[in-house]
Amino acid sequence: MIDFGIDKLALIGAVALIVIGPERLPKVARTVGVLLGKAQRYVSQVQSEVNRSIELEELKKMKAGLETAASDVESAVYQNLDEVRHAGDGFHEGDRPGDDSIASSSHYTPSYSHLYAPPRKNWRLKKAAVPMWYKQHNGVRRHVQSGAARVARFRPPGAGPR
């Protein structure tokens, strides 16, 4: 960037004092400071956008590399699976136990859905951040009640409905 030393800044200040005058110099200095701040913010925004775009391109390249590696591994696994199937070992297709279900399908994917079920959420049970003992101690309402239910709750036992 531009290199300003103390001597250059003093020279610029003296010229500005002579040209602008002492009455308008503080207002002009404030305006210049505001404009320089806006310019610095704009430059930093542009730099952050450029850095984000560079990082995005690097991530895209990394993703493409991982996808190609995964496809290479998948093809190698299927190739080895086909070699094992066709190796023979004295067996013919259909002679091995369980050969008809697994070996006949080229893309066997086991299902593990029966092993794990996500926990069911009880939507009636609400978890609060404030403990119940604190609410009871400070008299905080713990249940939502309508106005009519609240009146009926606190009505004296001898009084009937209105």
UniProtKB/TrEMBL annotation:
Pfam families: TatA_B_E. GO terms for biological process: protein transport by the Tat complex. It is a single-pass membrane protein. GO terms for cellular component: TAT protein transport complex. InterPro entries: TatA/B/E, TatB. Keywords: Cell inner membrane, Cell membrane, Membrane, Protein transport, Translocation, Transmembrane, Transmembrane helix, Transport. Its main location: membrane. It is found in: Cell membrane; Membrane. GO terms for molecular function: protein transmembrane transporter activity. The keyword Glycoprotein does not apply. The keyword Transmembrane applies. The Tat system comprises two distinct complexes: a TatABC complex, containing multiple copies of TatA, TatB and TatC subunits, and a separate TatA complex, containing only TatA subunits. Substrates initially bind to the TatABC complex, which probably triggers association of the separate TatA complex to form the active translocon. Part of the twin-arginine translocation (Tat) system that transports large folded proteins containing a characteristic twin-arginine motif in their signal peptide across membranes. Together with TatC, TatB is part of a receptor directly interacting with Tat signal peptides. TatB may form an oligomeric binding site that transiently accommodates folded Tat precursor proteins before their translocation. Belongs to the TatB family. This is Sec-independent protein translocase protein TatB.
